[in-house]
Each structure stands twice: as C-alpha cells, then as structure tokens.
Amino acid sequence: MQPVKLAIIGCGIAARDIHYPVLITIPNKFKITVVCNHTGQKARDFSLMAGNVPWVIDYHEVLSNPDVEAVDIALPIDLNRKVTEAAINAGKHVILEKPLAANLSEAKALVSLVEKSDNVCLLAENFRYRPGLQGIKDLMMDGHIGRPYALIWNYHGLFEESNKYARTEWRIKHKFEGGLITDGGVHNIAGIRFLAGEIIKYQAMARQINPAIGEMDTFSMHFETDQRISGTLNLYQSCNGYFENKVLMLGTGGALKLEDGLLTLHHKDQVVEKIHFENDNGYLEEFEDFYQAIRTGSKVISDFSEGYKDLEIILGAVAQAKKW
Q1: In angstroms, rounded to a whole number, what is the distance separating the alpha carbons of residues 1 and 178?
Q2: Where does 128-280+311-322 sit in CATH, by number?
Q3: What are the tens digits of pLDDT across the range 211-252?
Q4: Three-class SS of residue 117?
Q5: Where are the domains of the chain?
Q6: Quick check: 324 and 205 in contact, CB under 8 A?
C-alpha cells in the first residue's frame, strides 16, 4: 500500500513536538506533501524540518491541492470546527488534534457532518491507544483482578508559567471553558471511559492556586460508571515538590497499577506480574489506525462521536466545579 499524502495544518507545539516525531518513523505510511500555518515563519521552519516540503499560509490552498489525500489538523481549539468542516467538504481524510471543538455545539456539528461523509475522520485522542491502558483492560477482561469496582487516577504535577503548554493564551484566557483542566482532563475522561465504561454520574470541585496559568488548576471529580465502577480523578497542576501520574484499578481479587510505563498486577501483598511499556503514549498507534482506515476501510477506534462524549463529560464537570 502506498503512503498517504498528508498535509499538516497548524505548525505549533502539537504538530512539531508530537505528530512529526511519529510521522518520520513511518515514511512507508505517510508522506508530508505540504505544511500550513497562518504565520509564514512557523510554516517555513516546519517545512525545513520536514525536508523542505512546500509551505503555505492559507489552509484553503491545502484543501484545493490534489496532492493532498489527508490533513493533520493541529490548531488552537477555537479553529477546529471551521477548518475541519472545510477539509471534510473538500473530500480530505482528517486526523484532528483533541479536544474535538471549543464547545459542545461545535462538537455536535462536526459529529453530524462526519456521519454524512465517507471521509475517514479520527480524533487524535492518544489515550485510547495507549499500550499501558490497553494492558490494564486486557488483564481486567481476563479476570486477573476479579470484578473491578474502583478506578483512581492521580495526576500531581507543577505547570509553571514557563511551561510551553501553560503559557499559550487560548489555555490561560479560557477561549474554551476550563482551560488547562479541560485540555488535559479530556484525556483522562477518554481513558476512564475506555477502562471502566460510560460515566453515568459525577461530582466535581476545582480551585485556582496559580492565577498565571488559568482560572482553575486544581480539579477533583468523583464518578460512577455503568459497569458499577466508582472512582476519583484528581488533576493537581500546581503541585509544588511532588509528581505523580498513576492509574489504579481495584478488583475483588487484586489490583492493577500503571505508573511511569510500568504495569503491575497485585494479589494480596505481592506483585505477581510486571509489564513495562517503553513507549506508553499512543501517538504511533493512532497514526497507524488512521492509515489502516484510509487504506483498508477499517473503522477508527477514536472517532468524533467518542470525542464528543469525552468533551461533554469534562465540560459538564468543569461547569459543576465552578459552582462548588
């Protein structure tokens, strides 16, 4: 099968630091044919990095280019609907960096458009592709921890103003509701739904510790799923002096812990199995899924409707937390 002729629209952090490093490892599956950014300097710089491919500043030129089969859209969230709609209407396949849109009405419009289209449209929600989370699910499904009943997910870290993600204006100024909490938390919601089923009720609280990184940077949500799994999601982004990023699934016969790419299976007070995932981010897997869907007609794992559900939960929790 031939490589997919891919254009990149948006040459910022996600495209440069996340997508491109993956794409260069699979040249047999994707060939970058043009890059686009509304500022010429970023477009030129990305073009040079990508082997001096053509660059433009108007995405309409990309969408009218017959040498483009698919587009990788990695733009500020408030531009997602407009550019994605134009790409789908132009007949291009789309991989779109999450979250799906700036609000639920725009997200719903994209879901409706995709349902009427034959284009492959994948939301780049890498948590649905993370090998570590898949490892938890496989061991759960095989009965290694009995009946799962609780999921605890803790992220404790320090986002300082100098952090490249924290200092972007659309996150700090909340051009979409929840800022950093929504942008990061939508990942965790996708992961929770992947592991534990649909979230049927929740209660959330939030606080602002560091005003420089947004309206809220401390968030906690208690939830219950349709699989009778209850749990807590803690996102503490101004945690000074301590870091933790841990998923813990409890069952009647054991526990599963994923931390720093290491999945451990616990029975009583013993670790009975260890699985190390050298690369537990899911970026490669999502692009491979996109390629297979384009070339073979398979269904993508992370479609726009799943992204809508993720966004609906995190935005609902953020709205609830603001009243707390």
Answers
A1: 42
A2: 3.30.360.10
A3: 988 889 999 999 999 999 999 999 999 999 999 999 999 999
A4: coil
A5: 4-125+283-302, 128-280+311-322
A6: yes
